[in-house]
Amino acid sequence: MVGQIKELSSCIDEVAPVVVNLDAINSTLRTSGVSSTEDCEEQISELESLLDSQVYTVENKTELDEFIPSAKEIYRFYDPTPLSLDLKANLESSWLKFDNTLLELQALLPTHYGDIDDKHKTLQKRLSKCHAKILCCLDNLGLFCAYEAVKVCLESAPGIIEECEIYRKSFLQCQYFLEEVLSILGKSLPHGMLFVAIQLY
């Protein structure tokens, strides 16, 4: 009877699962205050008993790779979400509207304000660049990123300290343009994405 029990025990040992993640085991032993090799062996023995397993030390990673397959990498590429033609048309219309407003205000500038005239032309270039960058962001990064980019432009817009009233009005047109673009893009965002954008804002 005793012989049969020993034989059964031997069979169980042979089929016991193997624990090969020694990094995690060693980390656990180090944090539990093991002070000697004997303590370490004792705790590993207790661990084997607790998990009904055998701890196995691999000599190198190659041996481990034979039994544990590495993760299979899968690459997926997605086409950008097609944009509505109406969206770009609305953005173009908005830019033309504010650009024409700037031209009208420029015609009202007094002739003796030469430096203001130069600054006004700089405003027009800035408006045109903003429009081009928004379209570039829209085409390459998508609707949500374009929406966020416009918000950043609004937040980082410099203050106005010029005394010339016409220039002040022109300066504000650039801000109104960005606000209108933000509204146009916001209406095109899916409802859930718009909620996230508002939360971030």
UniProtKB/TrEMBL annotation:
Name the source's superkingdom: Eukaryota
Q: Which organism is it from?
A: Ilex paraguariensis
Q: What is this protein called?
A: Uncharacterized protein
